[in-house]
């Protein structure tokens, strides 16, 4: 026996379109609107300047892109930053500990 039916992603139904939170959509919308504003405000025929103008939309799309085992790239980058910047020495605080550091 031992066959268990476990849903692969139980939180997917709580997300917009199954992938995005409100913060993700707001971040993407801000990047796209800033890019559109820059496209209308700056007239250029230079390829380098055009790529710079498109950067806000490209960066925001990269950050909200779904990644396996994480929600999206923003979450992955945040987890990597937290891992390397916070304390990694953990103290036992179980039911038998009296709260003293050893």
Global morphology: elongated
Uncertain spans? none
Strand/helix succession? HHEEH
Computed over alpha carbons, the radius of gyration is: 22 Å
Output the strand order for the largest sheet. Answer: 1-2
Distance between the termini: 46 Å
What integer is the average pLDDT? 82
Number of helices: 3
Share of residues in helices: 40-55%
Q: What does it look like?
A:
The chain is mainly α and 102 residues long. It contains three helices and two strands, in the order H-H-E-E-H. The protein has helices at 22-41, 47-63, 73-85; strands at 66-67, 70-72. The chain has a two-stranded antiparallel ribbon. The longest helix is centred in the N-terminal third of the chain and has 20 residues, at 22-41. It is elongated and about 70 Å long. The termini are far apart.
List keywords for this structure.
3 helices; elongated; single chain; 49% helix; two-stranded antiparallel ribbon; 102 residues; mainly alpha
Secondary structure elements and their pairing?
Layout: H1 22-41, H2 47-63, E1 66-67, E2 70-72, H3 73-85
Antiparallel strand pairs: 1-2
Helix pairs in contact: 1-2
């Amino acid at each position: 026996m031992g066959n268990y039916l476990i849903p692969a992603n139980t939180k997917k139904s709580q997300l917009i379109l199954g992938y995005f939170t409100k913060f993700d959509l707001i971040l993407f919308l801000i990047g796209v609107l800033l890019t559109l504003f820059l496209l209308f405000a700056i007239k250029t025929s230079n390829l380098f300047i055009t790529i710079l103008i498109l950067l806000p939309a490209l960066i925001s799309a990269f950050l909200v892109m779904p990644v396996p085992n994480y929600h999206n790239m923003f979450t992955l980058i945040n987890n990597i930053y937290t891992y390397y910047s916070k304390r990694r020495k953990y103290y036992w605080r179980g039911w038998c500990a009296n709260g003293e550091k050893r």
